[in-house]
Known about the structure:
Blueprint: E1 4-9, H1 13-22, E2 30-36, E3 40-42, H2 47-51, H3 57-60, E4 61-63, H4 64-71, E5 74-77, E6 80-84, E7 89-92, E8 97-99, E9 102-105, E10 110-111, H5 119-122, E11 123-125, H6 129-143, E12 151-155, H7 159-178, E13 187-191, H8 202-214, E14 218-220, E15 225-229, E16 232-235, E17 240-242, E18 245-248, E19 252-253, E20 271-273, E21 278-279, E22 282-287, E23 292-294, H9 303-321, E24 337-340, E25 346-350, E26 353-357, H10 358-373
Parallel strand pairs: 1-2, 1-9, 2-5, 9-22, 11-18, 12-13, 12-18, 13-14, 20-23
Antiparallel strand pairs: 3-4, 6-7, 7-8, 10-19, 15-16, 16-17, 21-22, 24-25, 25-26
Helix pairs in contact: 1-4, 1-9
Bound molecules: flavin-adenine dinucleotide.
Flavin-adenine dinucleotide binds near residues 12 and 38.
Amino acid sequence: METRDIVLVGGGHAHVHVMRALAGELPPGWRVTLVSPGRLTPYSGMLPGFIAGIYSLDDAHIDLEWLADETGTRFRQARAAGIDRDKRLLITDDGEKLPYDLLSLDVGITPALDAIPGAAEHGIAVKPIGDFVRKYDALLAAALRADGPRRIAVVGGGAGGVELLLSLHGRLARMAKGAGLAPARFSFALVTSGKLLATHNGRVQDAFRRDLAGKGIALHEDARVTAIEADGLRLGEGAFVAADAVLVTTQARAPDWFAATGLALDEKGFLAVGPTLQSLNDARIFAAGDCAALVETPREKAGVYAVRAGPPLAHNLIAVAGGKAPQPWHPQKRHLALISTGEKYAVASRGAFKAEGGWLWRLKDWIDRRWMDRYRKAGR
Length: 380
Ligand SMILES: Cc1cc2nc3c(=O)[nH]c(=O)nc-3n(C[C@H](O)[C@H](O)[C@H](O)COP(=O)(O)OP(=O)(O)OC[C@H]3O[C@@H](n4cnc5c(N)ncnc54)[C@H](O)[C@@H]3O)c2cc1C
């Protein structure tokens, strides 16, 4: 029997579900391959808890090689670098050419530090999260050294930036205490070009303004960073925020290699897909998560939408492999966001709704662990 190939590129939030869902569901002769540069992929929902030191690396990551083995997926450790669409080959950075009948991309975003002068030299990119996790340990170790960074600034006032700063604040305060150092040795600043948590309601924004103020964290709203220098941030009006370490959560763009594929892209270079998650100009190619732009139903780039794209993507890959018509997906417009504060405490936000408490952190913990348990060895 002729072998037919589905190649999954990137072990992002949608593809971990696809690996599980495809197992045993494809017509005979189809095989599935995952191409990923790393064995571990982080789960964004547990990332703030990992940064805060509440979760271990294992808690917050999925072992893709194990999941591949478990689901009968071939695992190829490499980074995709191009697509030869005429010959239907995925090209990896080590020169391998993997044939595909159907291809699916869930590779996330790439940092765009060149958008702020000095950011590439002096800033630390937080996206993609997998790369940041590797830099994080070094940052923590340096912070505890006598000559290490003490003034920490985060650029970006979205949920990612706020959670990152509060998690880092909580972690360093606890580490300083453990090492017999005064927590006041560290200072923190959050700088955002618009309002804090601009896509959330005013009560959620105020809850976080209060939390930041209560922890002595400086907040600069409506402040555009014009340059990052060795000793701090220069703002639009000439103001300067002194900082030894600057974490940038704002700037991210589409992977460069998309441009040469000839696939339809949106104005920012992300893969333009229709409601079936198929490329607008190549029905054999699917995309989901941050790297895709749903042209009919645009949504923010958030892990929650990458997670939700998993089931419709899997459904459509199975349908097309079986010669059936794929189904359109209509992602929800709004979702309940549970934003953590660096301790076991969270604020819930949806439309005009706001609530907060330790119980919301426990709810988030339960949701996140339940999701992760589907993709990890039982009893780990
Ligand atoms: C600090 C921070 C906190 C956040 N918190 C939240 C949150 O609480 N809730 C939320 O919804 N969102 C959150 N986000 C956003 C969230 O991280 C992303 O939206 C989410 O990870 C996107 O998932 P994805 O599947 O598109 O890609 P990713 O999770 O980035 O996965 C992409 C995968 O593809 C791999 N890859 C990359 N390039 C290639 C290549 N060329 N070839 C093969 N593989 C490749 C990567 O190694 C990675 O494993 C946060 C982001 C940050 C920075």
